[in-house]
What we know:
Number of helices: 3
Oligomer: single chain
Order of helices and strands: HEEEEHEEHEEE
Number of strands: 9
Amino acid sequence: MSLLHQDSTEEIDDASRGEEFTKGSSHVVIATIIAAVLVTAVIAVLVFASRKPPVATAEILEVWAHPTHGETSGVDANGEPMAKENFDQVLLFAHVRLHNQSKYPIFIENLLANARLTNGAPISVSAGSVAQLQEAFVAYPELTVPHDSPLHLNTFVPPGQSMDCTAFWVFRMTRRQWEARKDWPPESKSDDPGSKYGLNFTFAIQYQPSLVLAPSAPVMEQ
């Protein structure tokens, strides 16, 4: 091209239109990005605002285990003699605390103790009744677990109130099986907190998601 060549009016107009188109396109891209960011922010705010806090919070403050080995009395329910049988079991006790932070009463249906055996298989046991807890202390007077406030299942916890009590379970296993239980990592998909001690607990609350907790301290043997 000659240095003296001058662009025609049409060429100049086409070039100007190209620059304007480029500028317009960049403005559209920027506007799209800003809109996407704003939509994302709005969705995040809505999701956060829609999340409701759990109706209750809980703690597993202390846990005690009492492995036992014994044999049956040799007499059946009718007083007739029968062959004696050996048995192994682990009595488990926990000091638990649950606080109802909702505006309505909550109904405690069950409290499960969940252990995982050495092969990784889970085993869950429902909490015993107040009568069973009292029977355990009669049968094993050497126990020093505090039990002035036993767990009452199928009971309501009023709004803003707490339940501070001792729960009780019986695992049908030997001491060796109990001591060989396996720890497991947390699982976010199932809200399982896992356990460093091969043990955690599930509060079953009527019409509400279950509350699963790991103990805050190692299991103490009685």
